Amino acid sequence: MFNLAFDNFNAILNMDGHGIYVWLVYSIGISIIVISFVIARRRIKIIQNKIKIKNASG
Amino acid sequence: MLMVGWIWGLLFAPEDAVQGNSYRIIFLHVPANIFAQMIYYFMSVCALMHLVWRVKLAAYLIKSAAPIGAMITFIAIFSGAIWGIPTWGTWWQWDARITSTLILFIMYLGILTLHGAFSNLEKADRLMSILVVVGVVNIPIIKKSVDWWSTLHQQASISVSGSSSIDPSMLYPLFISVIGLGFTLISLGILNSHSYIFTREKNKRWVSEHV
């Protein structure tokens, strides 16, 4: 169950011709999830800064 | 945990006898589909809480979860479309499962658009909750679409109650991927709700004291 399913790095990339589909899906999927986290963290920072400015101005 | 499931599935799970290596998309496609539906169920429970008991936080959670639902439904549709090219010879087919999932994606976008269209946020919360409750009828249709209509999309290979037709060497990494994606989306949901609650309650004293 824990044996590598491929012989070498090229075989991992190529996946018998299916690599383009598999790696495209995972790269887009991971990118979307990572961007969502970045946007979410940025939104928190923006709203915290706004509240801090409001507090400072009384 | 998500990475463990994906690395196991992508590199260590054996090749599928019929689909070859293209089946490895399953470790993203199936978890994405599961959570596309589960997030909507979560939103519908929140919508009922908001409509029945006027719980403000429930509406905030819907508004925070809807972009995540849209994002994960898009990933489910996109991964399915790419998987369709080597498997079915086409990236799109108006089949029952794909069409009902596309309707779910449109529902998520519709919920966000509806909420954004009102300047009165309390009214927006109420109307958004009504739309969420109405749209929940689509979720059992997505789940049962492969049983009710004999179309291109295969029937479910995994069952919570019965036996699964998928080999354990593929099932275990899939199960870990599902749990891992669940934790990832919960983390994202916490971040989204954090910023949205602060945005809505920014004039309250507790928010000023917390920041």
Concise account of the structure shown:
The complex is a heterodimer of chains A (about 60) and B (about 210). Chain A is mostly helical and about 60 residues long. In chain A, about 75% of the residues lie in helices and about 0% in strands.
Number of helices of chain A: 2
Cα distance, first to last residue of chain A?
Answer: 63 Å
**Shape assignment of chain B:** globular
Please estimate the helix content of chain B: over 70%
Over all CA atoms, what is the radius of gyration of chain B? 19 Å
Q: How would you classify the helix and strand content of chain B by structural class?
A: mainly alpha
User: Between the first and last Cα atoms of chain B, what is the distance in angstroms?
Assistant: 31 Å
Largest interface: A-B, 35 and 42 residues
The share of residues in extended strands of chain A comes to: under 5%
Can you tell me about this structure?
The complex is a heterodimer of chains A (58) and B (211). Chain A is mostly helical and 58 residues long. In chain A, 76% of the residues lie in helices and 0% in strands. Chain A is rod-shaped. Chain B is an all-alpha fold and 211 residues long. Chain B is globular. The two termini of chain B are 31 Å apart. The chains are: A mainly alpha (58), B mainly alpha (211). At the A-B interface, helix 2 of A face helix 1, helix 2, helix 3 and helix 7 of B.
